């Protein structure tokens, strides 16, 4: 695993074996918090293993012990909690916490899981080990891509204004909205890795086959993401207009989109089942404007896509098929919704009383565990780029002197961010001294 090691092989095996799904009511509980910490350790170790290219035991353990379906269910469960329970907590007038970090950990849980899946889904055997839940994961990615297209159309992310009148819960809502966008980008990468397995999924019998209607449902938002408009790029936590001199340079995100579209359109099995309606044809032909010589030099395989689109332009469209179609449907979201329908307020009030109102002593103990989980040397090693300011997202060179966890570009940003960071900072520092 390299010189920098977070988990020993035996520890990783124990943590993976212990992964399980939690009811929505138990999110934020002591057992759930322990699993969240374990997931963060597995997440960081998986990134370390991939970075040093010395075998990747985390992805092997997840596939061997059949834990990918567990992660997919946890991912969708926390997505539902954020949509159904979190807004109820934010509306409760009698709930005015001074420290929102316990809730933040639940909000952040979705980002932790999708980041781990992005790391391990690079390997096709992990994708195959998802079994029936691959449909639920594709459905999840479709929801996130739809969000991504909608927000890219707006051209910007919601900004943290740092208003002095904002309550801690309002600040948490802003953080959750910003986090949602980056989760959508991770989902895009996961979808691209799933499309790498298209041929395998068509070649095996049900129930593990990824049906064509569900895969093609994802195609429309992916193509819309590439539709014409002012060229922008997501960098430093926000959309930025790309300078003309840089517009021909292929970014990692662009590459993921093109590979996903290539896999979805040029798979012989997918093309055999795809109904070419006039609307679908119009959407796909928009891609031709972006297939420039410069792009083809960077991704030569796209020449096949260019040829396919040239042929498509001359092809006759087809009316929607009215054949009887039997296919699997995703079931995790629907099952969780049925189990909890009408209980959202009861779940929120239960969590308010038993989970999200900890004592000062409980917060200090939790802060100590957070400090042990998020080791600075590991965090710096897995960081994909230089640290960013916690307030304005600019490149940062100064770290909070008290807790050593947050980075800032200047003193002014640190002062503005103190209202959000202050309570957590004090607790983290106390927890570190208590060790």
Automatic annotation (TrEMBL):
Q: Which PROSITE patterns match?
A: ZF_MYND_1, ZF_MYND_2
Q: Where is this chain primarily localised?
A: membrane
| Cellular localization per UniProt | Apical cell membrane; Cytoplasm, Cytoskeleton, Microtubule organizing center, Centrosome, Centriolar satellite; Dynein axonemal particle
Q: Which UniProt keywords apply?
A: Cell membrane, Cytoplasm, Cytoskeleton, Membrane, Metal-binding, Zinc, Zinc-finger
Q: Which InterPro entries match?
A: ZMYND10 (IPR052298), Znf_MYND (IPR002893)
MF terms (GO), sorted A to Z: zinc ion binding
| Keyword field contains Iron-sulfur | no
Q: Does the keyword Hydrolase apply?
A: no
Give the UniProt entry's GO cellular component terms.
apical plasma membrane; centriolar satellite; dynein axonemal particle
Q: Which residues form the MYND-type domain?
A: 389-425
Signal peptide from the UniProt entry: none
Source superkingdom = Eukaryota
- Describe the family membership recorded for this protein in Swiss-Prot or TrEMBL: Belongs to the ZMYND10 family.
Question: What does this protein's UniProt record list under function?
Answer: Plays a role in axonemal structure organization and motility. Involved in axonemal pre-assembly of inner and outer dynein arms (IDA and ODA, respectively) for proper axoneme building for cilia motility. May act by indirectly regulating transcription of dynein proteins.
Q: How does it assemble?
A: Interacts (via C-terminus) with DNAAF11 (via CS domain); this interaction stabilizes DNAAF11 at the protein level. Interacts (via C-terminus) with DNAL1; this interaction stabilizes DNAL1 at the protein level. Interacts with DNAAF4, HSPA8, IQUB, RUVBL2 and DYNTL5.
| The protein's name | Zinc finger MYND domain-containing protein 10
């Amino acid at each position: 695993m390299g010189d920098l090691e977070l988990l020993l092989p035996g520890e990783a095996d124990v943590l993976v074996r212990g992964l399980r799904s939690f009811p929505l009511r138990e999110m934020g509980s002591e057992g759930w918090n322990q699993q969240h910490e374990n997931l963060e350790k597995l997440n960081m170790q998986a990134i370390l293993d991939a970075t040093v290219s010395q075998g990747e035991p985390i992805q092997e353990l997840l596939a061997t012990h059949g834990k990918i379906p567990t992660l997919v269910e946890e991912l969708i469960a926390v997505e539902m909690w954020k949509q159904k329970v979190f807004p109820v907590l934010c509306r409760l007038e009698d709930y005015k916490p001074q420290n929102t970090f316990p809730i933040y950990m639940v909000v952040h849980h979705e980002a932790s899981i999708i980041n781990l899946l992005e790391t391990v889904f690079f390997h096709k055997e992990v994708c195959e080990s998802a079994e029936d839940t691959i449909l639920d994961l594709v459905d999840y990615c479709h929801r996130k891509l739809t969000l991504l297209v909608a927000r890219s159309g707006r051209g910007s992310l919601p900004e943290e204004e740092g208003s002095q009148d904002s309550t801690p819960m309002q600040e948490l809502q802003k953080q959750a909205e910003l986090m949602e966008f980056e989760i959508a980008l991770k989902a895009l990468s996961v979808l691209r890795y799933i499309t790498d397995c298209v041929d395998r999924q068509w070649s095996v019998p049900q129930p593990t086959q990824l049906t064509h209607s569900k895969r093609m449902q994802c195609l429309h938002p992916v193509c819309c993401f590439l539709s014409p408009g002012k060229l922008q790029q997501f960098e430093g936590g926000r959309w930025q207009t790309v300078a003309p001199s840089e517009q021909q340079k292929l970014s990692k995100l662009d590459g993921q989109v093109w590979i996903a579209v290539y896999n979805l359109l040029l798979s012989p099995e997918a093309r055999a089942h795809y109904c070419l309606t006039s609307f679908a044809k119009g959407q796909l032909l928009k891609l031709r404007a972006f297939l420039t010589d410069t792009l083809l030099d960077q991704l030569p395989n796209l020449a096949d896509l260019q040829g396919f689109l040239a042929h498509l332009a001359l092809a006759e469209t087809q009316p929607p098929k009215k054949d009887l179609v039997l296919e699997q449907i995703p079931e995790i979201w629907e099952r969780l919704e049925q189990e909890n329908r009408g209980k959202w307020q009861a779940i929120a009030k239960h969590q308010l009383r038993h989970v999200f109102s900890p004592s000062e002593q409980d917060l200090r103990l939790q802060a100590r565990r957070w400090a042990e989980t998020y080791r600075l040397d590991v965090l710096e090693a897995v960081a994909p780029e230089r640290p960013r300011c916690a307030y304005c997202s600019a490149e940062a060179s100064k770290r909070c002197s008290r807790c050593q966890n947050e980075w800032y570009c200047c003193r002014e940003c640190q002062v503005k961010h103190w209202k959000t960071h202050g309570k957590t900072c004090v607790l983290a520092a106390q927890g570190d001294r208590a060790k």
